[in-house]
Amino acid sequence: MTGVWALLGALAAAGAIGVLLKVREGRISRRSSVDLPAPVRDLLVPGVTLVQLSTTFCAPCRHAKVVLRDLADRTEGLSHAELDVTNLPDVAAALGVMRTPTTLALTADGVEVLRVGGVPKRDSLLAALQPHLP
Amino acid sequence: MPKDAPVDPRGPRFSAWMTTVVLAVVLLTGWWRLLAAQTVLFAMCAFISLKLNPWGHVYRYAIQPRITPTTEREEAAPLRFAQGVGFVFALIGTLGYATGLTTLGTAATALALVAALLNAALGLCLGCEMYLLLRRYAPVLARPQSQ
């Protein structure tokens, strides 16, 4: 009987996690800037840089890369850079990043404009970035 | 460790459905030998090659020829990592059931089922997205397996 309850519990948990992650996917958030670790600072160029944190084991990172690269190619003053943090857990921890892909939009002097968890949604991301673009 | 070629992403989804069914049967029956077999399967896929997965062969011979081909390919590294996470939970579950710690066996199997079902239904690999979290709090689980 315990097994039946465990099965029902697992199904409910999977449903809840699925809904939660779907809702949070591509959500834009803002938090105060931190001192950027050197590997991130080195990626910054004039304008706004979308720094995408990825790992070797992250399948959606590939989709995020396609979306962000295309957006950066078509938008003036916007660049895209990918940083593989598989072996740089300290960098991810310093930035408070727990999941991949997470994308930080950073100005040339390292100020965080916003961040996106999961695969970004192109239109809402562009709208949120607009005030910071030339 | 040998590196697998990228795969048709629908294969792993099919495999995840089969894994979900196997784990559900284990939960309902407490049949730990079946869970032990699943543990071995996870280990072979994670540590040797995805090609050893029998569900992959079923997919290739019985399903793939009947559905529209896709050019989409998925990298093997995340899939193998996920199998490694599955292996750890299935191993704990097997040990739990086999030693009479049924609650431990049930809990570990239920967690593995949550991950397998999310993978099957949504194509979501919980272990892969949470790799950084795992690496931080359970470094043993998250040791890089293939580069």
Shape assignment of chain A: elongated
* Unreliable segments of 5+ consecutive residues of chain B: none
Q: Level of helix content of chain B?
A: 55-70%
Chain-averaged pLDDT of chain B: 89
| Percent of residues in beta strands of chain B | under 5%
Number of helices of chain B: 7
Please give the share of residues in helix of chain A: 40-55%
Give the CATH class of chain A: Alpha Beta
Percent strand of chain A equals: 15-25%
> How many extended strands of chain A?
5
Number of separate strands of chain B: 0
**Chain-averaged pLDDT of chain A:** 92
What is the SS-derived class of chain A? alpha+beta
Question: Can you tell me the number of structural domains of chain A?
Answer: 1
Largest interface: A-B, 31 and 41 residues
The CATH architecture of chain A would be: 3-Layer(aba) Sandwich
How many whole angstroms does the radius of gyration of chain B measure?
A: 15 Å
Succession of helices and strands of chain A = HEHEHEHEEH
Spell the H/E element sequence of chain B: HHHHHHH
- The helix-and-strand class of chain B reads mainly alpha
Descriptive report:
The complex is a heterodimer of chains A (134) and B (147). Chain A has five helices and five strands, in the order αβαβαβαββα. With 134 residues, chain A is of the alpha+beta class. A five-stranded mixed β-sheet of chain A has the order 1-5-4-2-3, with helices on one face. Helix content of chain A is 42%, strand content 21%. Chain A has a single domain, classed as Glutaredoxin (3-Layer(aba) Sandwich), CATH 3.40.30.10. The relative contact order of chain A is 0.22. With 147 residues, chain B is an all-alpha fold. Chain B has one domain. Chain B has seven helices and no strands. In chain B, α4 (76-98) runs antiparallel to α5 (102-122). The N and C termini of chain B lie close together (9 Å). In chain B, 48% of the residues are buried. The mean pLDDT of chain B is 89. Chain A binds chain B through residues 2-4, 6-7, 9-11, 13-14, 17-18, 21-22, 55-60, 62, 85-87, 89, 92-93, 97-100, and chain B through 24, 27-30, 74-75, 77-79, 81-82, 102-103, 106-107, 109-111, 113-114, 117-118, 121-133, 135-136, 144, 146-147.
